[in-house]
Every structure is written in C-alpha cells, then in structure tokens.
Amino acid sequence: MGYVRRSVAAAGSAAFFALAPGTVAGLLPWLLTRWQPGAAPAHWLPARLFGIVILLAGTVLLVRAFARFVVEGIGTPAPIAPPTHLVVGGLYRYVRNPMYLAVIATILGQALLLWRPVLLGYAALVAAAMVAFVLGHEQPALTRTFGDEYTAYRRAVPGWRPRLTPWQPGSREGHR
After folding, report:
1. pLDDT in tens, 146-163
2. What tens digit of pLDDT does each residue of 94-120 get?
3. Residue range of the domain that includes 114
4. What is the rounded CA–CA span in Å between residue 80 and residue 94?
C-alpha cells in the first residue's frame, strides 16, 4: 500500500512540477526573453557563468525539494494533494521554503546567463507573490493541519534565510 501511495505522490508531484515551476521558471521567462541573450560587455562573462551555476543549483535544489514531498510527506507540494506528513527533512531542515527559493534562483540564474534585466524585475514579482502566498495561505493551512508540530518547526527554521546548521526534529529548539 505504501508503494502505491508513493507512486501516486510521485506522479502528482511530477505533474505539479511541470505545471507550477515549469510555468513560473520556464515558460514565462521564455515568453519574456525567447531565450535571446542581451548585449553584455565581454568583461561580464564571469557574471554569465555565475548565472549558469545559480540556474543549475536552483534546478537541482528544486528537484530535491519536490522529491522530499514524495519520500517523506507521502503527498505533493500541490495544495489540492497535500502531504500526509509534515515535510521537515532534507533541505527543509535548513529553510522552510526551499522550493520558492530554488525557483527564484533559477530565474535569477537565467537573468545573469541571458543578461536580461527584465528577468530581474520578474523575479522580484514572483518573490513578492510567493511571500504573499506563504503568509496568506500556506502558513495558516499548515498550522491548521499540523498544529504544534508545524508551530515548533516554524519557530526553529527560518522561512527565507537558510540556517547554517540543520534543525533536528524533536529537539528542544523551537519549543519556546
């Protein structure tokens, strides 16, 4: 039964991955730029190379964060098929919102790689929308669903600025 649930969660997560981050960090940046690089001075090559690093890191972190929902949460990141367990392992031991940060990183990486300032403005709008969603929907929903477990996690793990050391679930930290 656990295998079936995880298989369904994996399929749902893959579909949501293509739909949400695929649209926000893929389709919309493409519509804004058509992947056409802007005119950057030759001495800005290191910035473009750094853009590749940020883009790849963001993509890898995003995939890892999504996988954590299948493995640990036995659900998806999609609000219509949420996890059955609070996801606090992996990257979530350092920061509560690694998916959102990874999406922003991929957009910023594209901005540097393509040298397209329009993507910087777009990244700022996406970040503002994500913060509003977290504050207005996600945090209240997680509090209703997971109660004290989420409250302790929220106290111990920052939402947007990663911790230097991983949080240990069950530790006294966060139970203030």
Report:
1. 999 999 999 999 999 999
2. 999 999 999 999 999 999 999 999 999
3. 2-156
4. 25
